[in-house]
Amino acid sequence: MQIKFYKYQGTGNDFVMIDNRQVFFPKENSQLIERLCDRRFGIGADGLILLENDTETDFRMVYYNSDGNESSMCGNGGRCLVAFAKSLNVINDKTSFNAIDGLHHASILENGIVSLQMKDVDKVTINKNYLFLNTGSPHHVTMVNDIENFDVKTNGAEIRFSDLYGNTGSNVNFVTQLSENHFRLRTYERGVEDETLSCGTGATATAIAMNACGKTKATNIALDVEGGTLRVSFHKKGTTYSNVFLEGKAEFVFEGIIEI
What integer is the mean pLDDT of 120-140? Predict the structure, then answer.
């Protein structure tokens, strides 16, 4: 069986995109998904995303990590899927879609920028050495020195697989402050089990975490990631963060046909 695929990336976080509106893709085959994401024996990606029909919105997002398992929300993947949906003429420049964490709204701006509304956050757990919150995916956020030389994979895996998060694990973000509203971020992603060039839900979590712990009073924050720059904005009322938006580039890379 041959399938048509498309490759997109958002600040270096890359995805295999498949138009599954005809419901042909074998979603139960986790080994196939893992193979398609393999960088040596497949197409190569941090994850695979299916665009499907939805009865309430423009489309539905179904996201799989590169280990082949369906996962929680992916912010950069959502932004890339919006760009993909426009290329298929499913949407124009504004859209709403459903994902595993619920309804999302998005807009395509100038210069390939996609702005994606993320879920509200009403709980940030602040501990002595780290913060934890859920932005559609669970995120551990901790500040470090010398972030450029920091061993993200080793330290991230240690936290991700620790007793702190049990069997489900957590994504792990390491952050350094550059200025009042500017941070440097590196992320270890569960399911990929390595550092990725960017993580949208991680950037969102880090921006909110830095505000929650008092490192910044800004509500519009720039985050330098390995693959570029993301921007997160939000409204804060009490301990609740609403109107949370993740912005950054979402770009087509290539397309092809592969035998499965």
Answer: 97
